[in-house]
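FORM 7B: Structural annotation worksheet

SECTION A. Query
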Amino acid sequence: MVEDKLSYTAKVLHIISSGWVLVIATLICVDVIGRAVFNHPLLGTSEIVKNSVVAITFLQIPLAIMIGAMLRTSMVMDAVGPMARNFIEIITCCIGIAFFVALALGSFDPLIQAWQIGEYEGEGALRVPTYPVRAIVFVMAILSAIIFAWQIFRILTGKPHTVKN
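SECTION B. Predicted structure
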């Protein structure tokens, strides 16, 4: 039940990020055509793209963790037995939890401050708010830590890894 909800959430976030990539690609194409044909770029494209890359990346992390697609050395994992493999997985999950909890803690105060002051990037005609991206980083860090904790529980209870992308 928990795994189904985590998996569903991760997949929905991945779909959102994929759609966002298409929007950004279209925006870049419009900007390039505007520069080449009309000698007039689309204002704010660089600020939108810069913030979007961070958001898109963090939206994709939960599914990557759920399906076991995080960076790992298969040469080492293939060379050890199941108990050692589980031990390595638990250690890497603990490191993942520590990393994402630290990221969440470190990004919380800047997130609150950005919401309070209405932080933005860009000057002139288009000012892009940064606080939504900060919120995405914070929430995805928490969700990623929860998924790593779930992976530890799954390993300790001997449940097979069933999530498919």
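SECTION C. Observations
The longest helix spans residues 2-37. Strands lie at 120-121, 128-129.

SECTION D. Sign-off
Analyst initials: ____
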